[in-house]
Design goal:
The structure is a homodimer of 230-residue chains. With 230 residues, chain A is of the alpha/beta class. The first copy, chain A, has a single domain, classed as P-loop containing nucleotide triphosphate hydrolases (Rossmann fold). Chain A is built from eight helices and seven strands, in the order αβαβαβαββααβαβα. Chain A has helices at residues 13-39, 55-65, 83-89, 108-115, 159-162, 164-169, 187-197, 214-226; strands spanning 43-48, 72-78, 95-99, 125-129, 146-151, 172-176, 202-206. A seven-stranded parallel beta sheet of chain A has the order 3-2-4-1-5-6-7, sandwiched between helices. In chain A, α1 packs parallel to α4. The longest helix of chain A has 27 residues, at 13-39. Chain A is globular, with a radius of gyration of 18 Å. The N and C termini of chain A lie far apart (48 Å).
Chain lengths: 230, 230
Amino acid sequence: MCTECGCGSKGHLEIIEVEEKILAANDERARHNRETLDGHGICGINLMSSPGAGKTTLLERTIELLDSKFELGVIEGDPETDRDAERIRARGVPVHQITTGQACHLDAAMLHEAMHQLPLGTIDLLFVENVGNLVCPAAFELGTHLNVVLLSITEGDDKPAKYPTVFRKADLLLTKTDLLPYTDFNIEKAIREARVLNPQMKIFQLSAKTGEGMKEWIGNLHHKISKNYF
Amino acid sequence: MCTECGCGSKGHLEIIEVEEKILAANDERARHNRETLDGHGICGINLMSSPGAGKTTLLERTIELLDSKFELGVIEGDPETDRDAERIRARGVPVHQITTGQACHLDAAMLHEAMHQLPLGTIDLLFVENVGNLVCPAAFELGTHLNVVLLSITEGDDKPAKYPTVFRKADLLLTKTDLLPYTDFNIEKAIREARVLNPQMKIFQLSAKTGEGMKEWIGNLHHKISKNYF
Protein backbone atom coordinates (compact mmCIF):
# COMPACT_ATOMS: atom_id res chain seq x y z
CA MET A 1 0.00 0.00 0.00
CA CYS A 2 1.37 3.35 -1.02
CA THR A 3 1.81 5.60 2.00
CA GLU A 4 2.32 8.77 -0.07
CA CYS A 5 -1.19 9.28 -1.32
CA GLY A 6 -3.18 6.20 -0.25
CA CYS A 7 -3.94 5.11 -3.80
CA GLY A 8 -3.87 1.39 -3.10
CA SER A 9 -0.70 0.54 -5.05
CA LYS A 10 0.43 -2.87 -3.86
CA GLY A 11 3.89 -2.57 -5.36
CA HIS A 12 5.58 -5.43 -7.11
CA LEU A 13 5.26 -8.39 -4.74
CA GLU A 14 2.47 -10.02 -6.70
CA ILE A 15 4.36 -9.63 -9.97
CA ILE A 16 7.54 -11.08 -8.46
CA GLU A 17 5.68 -14.19 -7.25
CA VAL A 18 4.20 -14.75 -10.69
CA GLU A 19 7.57 -14.21 -12.40
CA GLU A 20 9.25 -16.77 -10.16
CA LYS A 21 6.61 -19.33 -11.11
CA ILE A 22 7.02 -18.58 -14.80
CA LEU A 23 10.83 -18.80 -14.58
CA ALA A 24 10.72 -22.12 -12.73
CA ALA A 25 8.46 -23.62 -15.41
CA ASN A 26 10.76 -22.19 -18.08
CA ASP A 27 13.84 -23.74 -16.44
CA GLU A 28 12.21 -27.16 -16.63
CA ARG A 29 11.49 -26.72 -20.33
CA ALA A 30 15.05 -25.48 -20.90
CA ARG A 31 16.42 -28.68 -19.37
CA HIS A 32 14.31 -30.64 -21.83
CA ASN A 33 15.68 -28.56 -24.73
CA ARG A 34 19.24 -29.21 -23.57
CA GLU A 35 18.54 -32.97 -23.55
CA THR A 36 17.18 -32.69 -27.08
CA LEU A 37 20.26 -30.78 -28.28
CA ASP A 38 22.66 -33.18 -26.54
CA GLY A 39 20.75 -36.16 -27.92
CA HIS A 40 21.41 -34.89 -31.44
CA GLY A 41 25.01 -33.77 -30.74
CA ILE A 42 24.09 -30.15 -31.50
CA CYS A 43 25.91 -27.17 -30.00
CA GLY A 44 23.26 -24.53 -29.25
CA ILE A 45 24.20 -20.83 -29.09
CA ASN A 46 21.90 -18.13 -27.71
CA LEU A 47 22.86 -14.86 -29.44
CA MET A 48 21.66 -11.76 -27.58
CA SER A 49 21.95 -7.99 -28.12
CA SER A 50 20.03 -4.74 -28.29
CA PRO A 51 17.74 -4.22 -31.30
CA GLY A 52 19.73 -3.62 -34.46
CA ALA A 53 23.16 -4.38 -33.01
CA GLY A 54 23.91 -6.58 -36.02
CA LYS A 55 23.10 -10.16 -34.96
CA THR A 56 21.76 -11.22 -38.36
CA THR A 57 24.65 -9.61 -40.23
CA LEU A 58 27.05 -11.50 -37.96
CA LEU A 59 25.20 -14.75 -38.71
CA GLU A 60 25.28 -14.11 -42.47
CA ARG A 61 29.05 -13.62 -42.35
CA THR A 62 29.48 -16.62 -40.02
CA ILE A 63 27.60 -18.83 -42.48
CA GLU A 64 29.99 -17.73 -45.24
CA LEU A 65 33.12 -18.35 -43.19
CA LEU A 66 32.33 -21.52 -41.25
CA ASP A 67 33.89 -24.75 -42.53
CA SER A 68 31.32 -26.39 -44.83
CA LYS A 69 31.73 -29.74 -43.07
CA PHE A 70 29.66 -28.32 -40.19
CA GLU A 71 25.92 -28.06 -40.75
CA LEU A 72 24.19 -24.99 -39.39
CA GLY A 73 20.65 -24.32 -38.29
CA VAL A 74 19.18 -20.97 -37.24
CA ILE A 75 16.16 -19.94 -35.18
CA GLU A 76 15.22 -16.28 -35.44
CA GLY A 77 13.27 -14.33 -32.82
CA ASP A 78 11.58 -11.01 -33.54
CA PRO A 79 8.38 -9.35 -32.36
CA GLU A 80 7.17 -9.10 -35.99
CA THR A 81 8.20 -9.95 -39.59
CA ASP A 82 10.25 -12.85 -40.95
CA ARG A 83 12.84 -10.59 -42.57
CA ASP A 84 15.77 -12.07 -40.63
CA ALA A 85 14.73 -15.63 -41.51
CA GLU A 86 14.54 -14.63 -45.19
CA ARG A 87 18.11 -13.33 -45.03
CA ILE A 88 19.34 -16.63 -43.55
CA ARG A 89 17.22 -18.78 -45.90
CA ALA A 90 18.76 -16.97 -48.88
CA ARG A 91 22.08 -18.51 -47.82
CA GLY A 92 20.74 -22.07 -47.93
CA VAL A 93 20.64 -22.67 -44.17
CA PRO A 94 17.62 -24.29 -42.47
CA VAL A 95 15.88 -21.56 -40.48
CA HIS A 96 12.69 -21.08 -38.49
CA GLN A 97 11.30 -17.67 -37.52
CA ILE A 98 9.57 -17.16 -34.19
CA THR A 99 7.47 -14.00 -34.12
CA THR A 100 6.90 -13.22 -30.47
CA GLY A 101 4.33 -10.43 -30.81
CA GLN A 102 4.24 -8.59 -27.47
CA ALA A 103 6.86 -10.86 -25.89
CA CYS A 104 10.27 -9.24 -25.47
CA HIS A 105 12.33 -12.43 -25.34
CA LEU A 106 12.41 -16.03 -26.44
CA ASP A 107 11.57 -18.63 -23.83
CA ALA A 108 12.26 -22.35 -23.66
CA ALA A 109 8.77 -23.32 -24.83
CA MET A 110 9.08 -21.18 -27.96
CA LEU A 111 12.49 -22.64 -28.70
CA HIS A 112 11.18 -26.15 -28.18
CA GLU A 113 8.44 -25.71 -30.75
CA ALA A 114 10.84 -24.06 -33.20
CA MET A 115 13.51 -26.76 -32.87
CA HIS A 116 11.01 -29.36 -34.02
CA GLN A 117 10.58 -27.40 -37.27
CA LEU A 118 14.26 -27.98 -38.15
CA PRO A 119 16.10 -31.13 -39.36
CA LEU A 120 17.80 -31.70 -36.00
CA GLY A 121 19.40 -34.96 -37.19
CA THR A 122 21.66 -33.13 -39.65
CA ILE A 123 22.61 -30.01 -37.63
CA ASP A 124 25.93 -29.51 -35.77
CA LEU A 125 25.53 -25.90 -34.67
CA LEU A 126 22.23 -24.18 -33.88
CA PHE A 127 22.21 -20.41 -33.58
CA VAL A 128 19.26 -18.93 -31.73
CA GLU A 129 18.99 -15.22 -32.49
CA ASN A 130 17.06 -13.86 -29.54
CA VAL A 131 14.75 -10.83 -29.65
CA GLY A 132 16.76 -7.59 -29.65
CA ASN A 133 16.68 -6.70 -25.95
CA LEU A 134 19.44 -6.38 -23.34
CA VAL A 135 17.24 -7.25 -20.35
CA CYS A 136 14.72 -10.12 -20.45
CA PRO A 137 16.46 -12.61 -22.76
CA ALA A 138 19.05 -12.96 -19.99
CA ALA A 139 16.37 -14.09 -17.52
CA PHE A 140 14.98 -16.91 -19.63
CA GLU A 141 17.14 -20.02 -19.98
CA LEU A 142 16.66 -21.66 -23.36
CA GLY A 143 18.67 -24.84 -22.86
CA THR A 144 21.42 -23.76 -25.27
CA HIS A 145 25.07 -24.36 -24.36
CA LEU A 146 26.56 -20.92 -24.85
CA ASN A 147 25.37 -17.37 -24.30
CA VAL A 148 26.91 -14.86 -26.69
CA VAL A 149 26.31 -11.11 -26.32
CA LEU A 150 26.94 -8.72 -29.20
CA LEU A 151 27.55 -5.10 -28.20
CA SER A 152 27.25 -2.42 -30.85
CA ILE A 153 29.59 0.36 -29.84
CA THR A 154 27.13 3.11 -30.77
CA GLU A 155 25.11 2.00 -27.72
CA GLY A 156 27.75 3.52 -25.46
CA ASP A 157 30.48 2.11 -23.22
CA ASP A 158 28.19 2.23 -20.15
CA LYS A 159 26.02 -0.69 -21.25
CA PRO A 160 27.75 -3.47 -19.24
CA ALA A 161 27.33 -1.45 -16.01
CA LYS A 162 23.73 -0.45 -16.76
CA TYR A 163 22.49 -3.83 -18.08
CA PRO A 164 24.64 -6.21 -16.01
CA THR A 165 22.57 -9.40 -16.04
CA VAL A 166 23.11 -10.24 -19.69
CA PHE A 167 26.86 -9.61 -19.37
CA ARG A 168 27.06 -11.77 -16.23
CA LYS A 169 25.44 -14.63 -18.14
CA ALA A 170 27.58 -14.33 -21.26
CA ASP A 171 30.24 -16.91 -22.12
CA LEU A 172 31.39 -14.71 -24.97
CA LEU A 173 31.17 -10.96 -25.55
CA LEU A 174 31.56 -9.66 -29.09
CA THR A 175 32.17 -5.93 -29.42
CA LYS A 176 31.71 -4.46 -32.87
CA THR A 177 34.42 -2.14 -34.08
CA ASP A 178 33.47 -0.65 -37.46
CA LEU A 179 31.91 2.59 -36.14
CA LEU A 180 34.58 3.19 -33.46
CA PRO A 181 36.14 6.16 -35.33
CA TYR A 182 32.81 8.04 -35.36
CA THR A 183 31.81 7.70 -31.69
CA ASP A 184 33.24 8.52 -28.27
CA PHE A 185 32.98 4.87 -27.18
CA ASN A 186 35.81 3.93 -24.79
CA ILE A 187 36.36 0.25 -25.57
CA GLU A 188 38.85 -0.24 -22.70
CA LYS A 189 36.28 1.12 -20.21
CA ALA A 190 33.48 -1.11 -21.59
CA ILE A 191 35.69 -4.21 -21.43
CA ARG A 192 36.99 -3.32 -17.95
CA GLU A 193 33.45 -2.89 -16.59
CA ALA A 194 32.29 -6.09 -18.30
CA ARG A 195 35.23 -8.00 -16.77
CA VAL A 196 34.25 -6.82 -13.27
CA LEU A 197 30.82 -8.40 -13.83
CA ASN A 198 32.16 -11.57 -15.43
CA PRO A 199 35.90 -12.33 -15.20
CA GLN A 200 35.55 -15.67 -17.04
CA MET A 201 33.87 -14.26 -20.17
CA LYS A 202 35.86 -14.39 -23.43
CA ILE A 203 35.88 -11.15 -25.39
CA PHE A 204 36.40 -10.73 -29.13
CA GLN A 205 36.49 -7.40 -30.94
CA LEU A 206 35.16 -7.91 -34.43
CA SER A 207 33.28 -6.45 -37.36
CA ALA A 208 31.18 -8.51 -39.74
CA LYS A 209 31.41 -5.59 -42.18
CA THR A 210 35.20 -5.11 -42.30
CA GLY A 211 36.07 -8.73 -41.43
CA GLU A 212 38.21 -7.64 -38.47
CA GLY A 213 38.34 -10.29 -35.74
CA MET A 214 36.13 -12.74 -37.66
CA LYS A 215 38.96 -15.30 -37.95
CA GLU A 216 39.21 -15.60 -34.16
CA TRP A 217 35.42 -15.89 -33.77
CA ILE A 218 35.16 -18.60 -36.44
CA GLY A 219 38.21 -20.41 -35.01
CA ASN A 220 36.54 -20.44 -31.60
CA LEU A 221 33.35 -21.93 -33.10
CA HIS A 222 35.31 -24.64 -34.98
CA HIS A 223 37.11 -25.54 -31.78
CA LYS A 224 33.89 -25.80 -29.78
CA ILE A 225 32.04 -27.93 -32.32
CA SER A 226 34.86 -30.27 -33.31
CA LYS A 227 35.96 -30.95 -29.73
CA ASN A 228 32.40 -31.06 -28.37
CA TYR A 229 33.46 -28.30 -25.93
CA PHE A 230 29.96 -27.20 -25.22
CA MET B 1 0.62 -30.19 -24.49
CA CYS B 2 3.36 -30.52 -27.06
CA THR B 3 2.46 -33.11 -29.67
CA GLU B 4 5.98 -33.32 -31.10
CA CYS B 5 7.74 -35.13 -28.28
CA GLY B 6 5.19 -35.39 -25.45
CA CYS B 7 7.28 -33.31 -23.07
CA GLY B 8 4.37 -31.65 -21.28
CA SER B 9 4.93 -28.08 -22.48
CA LYS B 10 1.74 -26.14 -21.80
CA GLY B 11 2.59 -23.26 -24.12
CA HIS B 12 1.88 -19.69 -23.25
CA LEU B 13 -1.75 -19.59 -22.19
CA GLU B 14 -0.96 -19.41 -18.49
CA ILE B 15 1.55 -16.62 -19.06
CA ILE B 16 -0.93 -14.65 -21.19
CA GLU B 17 -3.60 -14.83 -18.46
CA VAL B 18 -1.13 -13.57 -15.86
CA GLU B 19 0.07 -10.78 -18.14
CA GLU B 20 -3.48 -9.58 -18.76
CA LYS B 21 -4.04 -9.36 -15.02
CA ILE B 22 -0.79 -7.45 -14.50
CA LEU B 23 -1.58 -5.02 -17.34
CA ALA B 24 -5.10 -4.34 -16.03
CA ALA B 25 -3.71 -3.50 -12.58
CA ASN B 26 -1.06 -1.32 -14.22
CA ASP B 27 -3.68 0.56 -16.25
CA GLU B 28 -5.51 1.47 -13.05
CA ARG B 29 -2.31 2.83 -11.50
CA ALA B 30 -1.54 4.74 -14.70
CA ARG B 31 -4.93 6.49 -14.47
CA HIS B 32 -4.02 7.55 -10.95
CA ASN B 33 -0.66 8.91 -12.17
CA ARG B 34 -2.42 10.89 -14.90
CA GLU B 35 -4.73 12.45 -12.32
CA THR B 36 -1.70 13.40 -10.23
CA LEU B 37 0.04 15.00 -13.23
CA ASP B 38 -3.12 16.83 -14.30
CA GLY B 39 -3.73 17.99 -10.74
CA HIS B 40 -0.31 19.68 -10.75
CA GLY B 41 -0.59 20.98 -14.34
CA ILE B 42 2.41 18.89 -15.39
CA CYS B 43 2.93 17.62 -18.93
CA GLY B 44 4.37 14.09 -18.65
CA ILE B 45 6.48 12.62 -21.47
CA ASN B 46 7.45 8.94 -21.68
CA LEU B 47 10.72 8.75 -23.64
CA MET B 48 11.44 5.30 -25.07
CA SER B 49 14.19 3.78 -27.21
CA SER B 50 16.63 0.89 -27.49
CA PRO B 51 19.53 0.82 -25.03
CA GLY B 52 22.08 3.50 -25.80
CA ALA B 53 20.06 5.30 -28.48
CA GLY B 54 20.85 8.63 -26.81
CA LYS B 55 17.88 9.46 -24.58
CA THR B 56 19.96 11.04 -21.81
CA THR B 57 22.05 13.05 -24.27
CA LEU B 58 18.81 14.34 -25.82
CA LEU B 59 17.55 15.33 -22.35
CA GLU B 60 20.81 17.12 -21.50
CA ARG B 61 20.56 19.18 -24.69
CA THR B 62 16.82 19.78 -24.14
CA ILE B 63 17.51 21.13 -20.64
CA GLU B 64 20.02 23.59 -22.14
CA LEU B 65 17.67 24.79 -24.87
CA LEU B 66 14.28 24.91 -23.16
CA ASP B 67 13.00 28.33 -22.13
CA SER B 68 14.03 28.85 -18.50
CA LYS B 69 10.50 29.95 -17.55
CA PHE B 70 9.47 26.28 -17.73
CA GLU B 71 10.54 24.07 -14.83
CA LEU B 72 11.68 20.56 -15.68
CA GLY B 73 11.72 17.32 -13.73
CA VAL B 74 13.23 14.02 -14.84
CA ILE B 75 12.70 10.41 -13.79
CA GLU B 76 15.35 8.00 -15.03
CA GLY B 77 14.84 4.25 -15.49
CA ASP B 78 17.72 1.78 -15.81
CA PRO B 79 18.27 -1.81 -14.69
CA GLU B 80 21.34 -0.69 -12.70
CA THR B 81 23.43 2.41 -11.79
CA ASP B 82 22.34 6.01 -11.30
CA ARG B 83 24.69 7.38 -13.96
CA ASP B 84 21.91 8.94 -16.02
CA ALA B 85 20.45 10.69 -12.96
CA GLU B 86 23.91 12.05 -12.12
CA ARG B 87 24.16 13.55 -15.61
CA ILE B 88 20.79 15.29 -15.22
CA ARG B 89 21.47 16.39 -11.63
CA ALA B 90 24.69 18.06 -12.80
CA ARG B 91 22.47 20.40 -14.83
CA GLY B 92 20.47 21.50 -11.80
CA VAL B 93 17.24 19.70 -12.67
CA PRO B 94 15.30 17.70 -10.03
CA VAL B 95 15.72 14.03 -10.90
CA HIS B 96 14.94 10.64 -9.41
CA GLN B 97 16.55 7.39 -10.58
CA ILE B 98 14.55 4.16 -10.66
CA THR B 99 16.78 1.09 -10.83
CA THR B 100 14.56 -1.71 -12.08
CA GLY B 101 16.92 -4.67 -11.52
CA GLN B 102 15.55 -7.55 -13.60
CA ALA B 103 12.57 -5.55 -14.90
CA CYS B 104 12.88 -4.48 -18.52
CA HIS B 105 10.48 -1.52 -18.37
CA LEU B 106 9.01 1.06 -16.05
CA ASP B 107 5.48 0.48 -14.86
CA ALA B 108 2.91 2.81 -13.39
CA ALA B 109 3.61 1.75 -9.78
CA MET B 110 7.33 2.54 -10.15
CA LEU B 111 6.53 5.91 -11.68
CA HIS B 112 4.05 6.67 -8.92
CA GLU B 113 6.65 6.12 -6.21
CA ALA B 114 9.26 8.11 -8.13
CA MET B 115 6.94 11.08 -8.77
CA HIS B 116 6.48 11.51 -5.03
CA GLN B 117 10.26 12.01 -4.71
CA LEU B 118 10.08 15.14 -6.89
CA PRO B 119 8.78 18.66 -6.12
CA LEU B 120 5.66 18.21 -8.23
CA GLY B 121 4.27 21.60 -7.25
CA THR B 122 7.02 23.43 -9.17
CA ILE B 123 7.36 21.26 -12.29
CA ASP B 124 5.83 22.08 -15.71
CA LEU B 125 7.34 19.28 -17.79
CA LEU B 126 8.25 15.83 -16.50
CA PHE B 127 10.44 13.62 -18.68
CA VAL B 128 10.33 9.92 -17.87
CA GLU B 129 13.30 8.19 -19.48
CA ASN B 130 12.17 4.59 -19.75
CA VAL B 131 14.46 1.55 -19.65
CA GLY B 132 16.26 1.07 -22.96
CA ASN B 133 14.02 -1.51 -24.65
CA LEU B 134 11.89 -1.35 -27.80
CA VAL B 135 9.34 -3.96 -26.66
CA CYS B 136 7.92 -3.96 -23.11
CA PRO B 137 7.88 -0.24 -22.28
CA ALA B 138 5.22 0.07 -24.98
CA ALA B 139 2.95 -2.40 -23.16
CA PHE B 140 2.95 -0.59 -19.81
CA GLU B 141 0.97 2.64 -19.62
CA LEU B 142 2.56 5.09 -17.20
CA GLY B 143 -0.10 7.78 -17.14
CA THR B 144 2.07 10.29 -19.02
CA HIS B 145 0.52 12.45 -21.76
CA LEU B 146 2.90 11.84 -24.65
CA ASN B 147 4.90 8.86 -25.87
CA VAL B 148 8.11 9.82 -27.64
CA VAL B 149 10.29 7.22 -29.38
CA LEU B 150 13.92 7.94 -30.24
CA LEU B 151 15.38 5.82 -33.04
CA SER B 152 19.15 5.65 -33.40
CA ILE B 153 19.86 5.10 -37.07
CA THR B 154 22.63 2.56 -36.42
CA GLU B 155 19.86 0.18 -35.30
CA GLY B 156 18.75 -0.21 -38.91
CA ASP B 157 15.82 1.05 -40.95
CA ASP B 158 13.84 -2.18 -40.32
CA LYS B 159 13.11 -1.37 -36.66
CA PRO B 160 9.57 0.10 -37.13
CA ALA B 161 8.46 -3.03 -39.01
CA LYS B 162 10.12 -5.45 -36.58
CA TYR B 163 9.14 -3.69 -33.32
CA PRO B 164 5.78 -2.19 -34.34
CA THR B 165 4.04 -1.78 -30.97
CA VAL B 166 6.21 1.04 -29.69
CA PHE B 167 5.89 2.91 -33.00
CA ARG B 168 2.10 2.46 -33.01
CA LYS B 169 1.96 4.02 -29.54
CA ALA B 170 4.24 6.95 -30.29
CA ASP B 171 2.91 10.49 -30.58
CA LEU B 172 6.33 11.64 -31.72
CA LEU B 173 9.19 9.81 -33.42
CA LEU B 174 12.66 11.32 -33.27
CA THR B 175 15.22 9.89 -35.67
CA LYS B 176 18.83 10.72 -34.97
CA THR B 177 20.89 11.88 -37.92
CA ASP B 178 24.54 12.34 -36.87
CA LEU B 179 25.79 8.87 -37.94
CA LEU B 180 23.78 8.77 -41.20
CA PRO B 181 26.90 9.20 -43.40
CA TYR B 182 28.53 6.09 -41.92
CA THR B 183 25.66 3.59 -42.21
CA ASP B 184 23.39 2.18 -44.91
CA PHE B 185 20.28 3.36 -43.04
CA ASN B 186 17.51 4.36 -45.47
CA ILE B 187 15.68 7.11 -43.60
CA GLU B 188 12.86 7.37 -46.18
CA LYS B 189 12.17 3.63 -45.82
CA ALA B 190 12.15 3.80 -42.01
CA ILE B 191 9.77 6.78 -42.01
CA ARG B 192 7.52 5.21 -44.67
CA GLU B 193 7.21 1.97 -42.67
CA ALA B 194 6.63 3.89 -39.44
CA ARG B 195 3.88 5.94 -41.13
CA VAL B 196 2.09 2.74 -42.20
CA LEU B 197 1.94 1.72 -38.54
CA ASN B 198 0.98 5.15 -37.26
CA PRO B 199 -0.14 7.81 -39.76
CA GLN B 200 -0.82 10.40 -37.00
CA MET B 201 2.66 10.31 -35.48
CA LYS B 202 4.79 13.44 -35.82
CA ILE B 203 8.35 12.82 -36.97
CA PHE B 204 11.40 15.00 -36.33
CA GLN B 205 14.89 14.29 -37.65
CA LEU B 206 17.40 15.63 -35.16
CA SER B 207 20.79 15.27 -33.56
CA ALA B 208 21.55 16.35 -30.01
CA LYS B 209 25.24 16.29 -30.98
CA THR B 210 25.16 18.50 -34.09
CA GLY B 211 22.08 20.52 -33.03
CA GLU B 212 20.25 19.67 -36.28
CA GLY B 213 16.47 19.66 -35.83
CA MET B 214 16.65 20.63 -32.13
CA LYS B 215 14.88 23.96 -32.76
CA GLU B 216 11.76 22.17 -34.08
CA TRP B 217 11.78 19.70 -31.16
CA ILE B 218 12.12 22.48 -28.56
CA GLY B 219 9.48 24.57 -30.36
CA ASN B 220 7.08 21.67 -30.22
CA LEU B 221 7.68 21.25 -26.47
CA HIS B 222 7.14 24.99 -25.82
CA HIS B 223 3.90 24.84 -27.78
CA LYS B 224 2.63 21.82 -25.86
CA ILE B 225 3.44 23.20 -22.42
CA SER B 226 2.35 26.79 -22.91
CA LYS B 227 -0.94 25.87 -24.60
CA ASN B 228 -1.62 22.91 -22.30
CA TYR B 229 -1.84 20.76 -25.45
CA PHE B 230 -1.27 17.51 -23.63
